[in-house]
Amino acid sequence: MHGPASPGWLLVALCAATGVYCLLRMRSSVEEQRRAAGGEALMGFGMAAMAVPSAVFSPPAWAWPVYTVVFGTAALRALWAARAGACHLHHVVGAGAMVYMAAAMAASPAPAHAHQHEGAGVPLLTGVLVLYFAGYVLVSGVRLLPAAGAGTSAVSWSDRPEVVRACRLSMGIGMLAMLMAM
User: Fold this and answer.
1) d(Cα 132, Cα 97) in Å, to the nearest integer?
2) pLDDT in tens, 140-162
């Protein structure tokens, strides 16, 4: 998101690696894993693309509306899937946050973006999303702790719940970092 280069590249690597893992999860024999993995792969790769430091590459002006449409569609798809269970509501919030960030980037050119909120404070929606993802990261981290000590089983590596939780935790951390950089 137009922050310092080193943390930006770390965020790109984290999100891209998460996206690759989610693509591999799409080969799972568990239908629910496959369904969730596609949306999570899109989020991981989208976050990686948005996190590329602006000193290296600034997307053309048309890219931000494209991101808005792609993630708006993903949010609608997740909202449709949420009818079956509340577990998809997090995907709705995540895709909505991506739409919000893309719209904010479209509204402000890269050089002015770093100073857009000087003296104005944090916009309410940004603050709400930061609080949501901070809570999500903390809860996800706590849920990961008991699973990390569990013994191995005959479950495929792509279906291991602790790896899936770690993947979701890393995307939550990435989203939190991107929102805080706004």
Assistant:
1) 10
2) 988 887 655 555 556 666 667 78
